[in-house]
Amino acid sequence: MAEPLEVQSLNSYYGSAQALFDVSLQVAPGEAVVLLGRNGAGKSTTLKSIMGLVPRREGRLRFGERDIAAMQAYRIARLGLGYVPEERRVFAALTVEENLLVGQKEQTKSGDGRTNPWSFERLFQLFPNLAELRGRLGGHISGGEQQMLTIARTLMGNPSLLLLDEPSEGLAPIIVQQLGAAIKELKDMGLSLLLSEQNLKFASAIGDRAYVLESGHVRFAGTVDQLLADEEGRRRWLSL
Ligand SMILES: Nc1ncnc2c1ncn2[C@@H]1O[C@H](COP(=O)(O)OP(=O)(O)OP(=O)(O)O)[C@@H](O)[C@H]1O
Ligand SMILES: [Mg+2]
Known about the structure:
Strand order of the largest sheet: 6-7-8-3-9-10
CATH topology: Rossmann fold
Shape: globular
Bound molecules: adenosine-5'-triphosphate, magnesium ion
Mean pLDDT: 93
Radius of gyration: 17 Å
Number of domains: 1
Oligomer: single chain
Low-confidence stretches: none
C-alpha cells in the first residue's frame, strides 16, 4: 500500500526570490491529485520541492512516517516517489530498452522490499507505442514517445507515488489521449498520483481532487467537480 504525502506550509526559494508561499496539499494513498495553474504559478517548484530539488525549502513535508523536509533527493526517490520532470529527459544515445534498464538499476538499489510489478512486458502493455521502438535510440523517437518512455523508465523504479510535471504539454491530441489512458490505468493499479497540468480537460479526466496555484499561493483546494463548477475561479486563476 502506498503512503500518504503531506505538505504543510511549504515555502520555497530561488536565491532571495520566494516562489512558494505556505503551500499545503495532501495526496492520500491511491488518490489522483491535480495541481493546476498558469505559467509561472509554481507547479514545477512544488513538485521539485517535494523531491528535494530546489535550492531552499521550508515547511512540513512527510511521506508516511518519514520526514522528508531535509532529506536529499536520491533518498526521497528511494522511499518510492517517482518524479517525471517537465523536460522529459531521455538518454538520446541509448535505445528505448536501455533507457528502461537505467530506471531498473535505480530500483535495485532501493532495497525497500516491495515487489516490483514492472517488467518490460507490463510496460509495453501500458505503452504499446514503445513496444515497436525497443531498439530505437531515445533521440530518434517523437516527443510523445519520449514522454511515455520517461514515465516508463520511472515506473521501472517501482514508485508508489508518481509526480508528473505537465505530461501533456506540447503533445498532439491523439498522443494526449493515449497518455491519459495509461495514467488512468496506473491510478486503477493503486498508484498515488500528483499531476501538474495546464490542460484542465486532461487533468479533470484523471484527478479526484485539485489544487490551483497562482503566484506561488494555493487559491483553490477541492474536488475536481467543484473546480469545474467554479467558472469565476477558473477564469481568475486559469484564464479558462
Ligand atoms: N531555477 C529558477 N531560478 C529562479 N527562479 C525560478 C526558477 N525556476 C522557477 N523560477 C520562478 O519560480 C516561479 C514558479 O515557477 P515554476 O516553474 O514553478 O512555475 P510553473 O507553474 O511550473 O510554470 P510552467 O507552467 O511555465 O511550467 C516563477 O516565478 C519562476 O520564474
Ligand atoms: Mg512547470
